[in-house]
Write a structure and sequence with these properties.
Layout (H helix, E strand, L loop, with lengths): L14 E4 L4 E4 H29 L2 H13 L2 H19 L13 H72 L1
Antiparallel strand pairs: 1-2
Helix pairs in contact: 2-4
């Protein structure tokens, strides 16, 4: 099975060239390309982060932090420990001050209160994240569209060069023959 040279798979080869163009891609050039792509991605990300800081209110950023904490393992572990301690304090017979005996009505009230406030905050944060993701996808689309246009331009240019080269070859054959 013949393998086609692909720039993505060139890291495994010592030195190769871009198929049909004779441009050598060695490890140093691939590393340079990788650094350029990383730098570009960092610049786009930092630009999006700057926009986020400028366009979001303080309350929105607080909501994002609350949502990030509310959806973390830290929150789950801390809240799980809180629930276990609450139940133990109110159930164990050697503790005399049971402030919320079974069926834990106060605990149910606290849980309802947390759910009532935490869920809209998380939804607001998710809406902002969805808007940011949409913005990023629009940027990605624009980049891909521009790259596609440039590739099309290069292909047209190559086809024109091929036609001109064929004409030159034909003219040379006519001169020789």
């Amino acid at each position: 099975m013949a393998t086609e040279k692909n720039p993505v798979n060139m890291k495994s080869e010592k030195a190769s060239d871009i198929h049909g163009f004779g441009i050598e891609l060695n490890k140093e050039r691939l590393t340079r390309i990788d650094r350029m792509v990383e730098l570009y991605e960092k610049r786009v990300t930092s630009r999006l982060d700057e926009e986020y800081e400028l366009k979001t209110r303080r309350s929105d950023r607080i909501a994002d932090k609350v949502a990030a904490f509310g959806g973390s393992w830290t929150f789950i572990i801390i809240f799980g420990c809180f629930l276990v301690m609450w139940v133990l304090v109110n159930v164990l017979p050697f503790i005399t001050n049971h402030f919320d005996p079974k069926p834990f009505i106060l605990l149910n009230l606290i849980l309802s209160f947390i759910a009532a406030f935490q869920s809209p905050i998380i939804m607001m944060s998710q809406n902002r994240q969805a808007a940011r993701d949409k913005h990023e996808s629009i940027i990605d689309f624009a980049i891909n569209y521009k790259a596609e246009q440039e590739i099309d331009d290069m292909q047209r240019h190559l086809h024109r060069m091929e036609m001109e080269l064929a004409e030159i070859k034909e003219m040379l054959k006519e001169r020789e023959g």
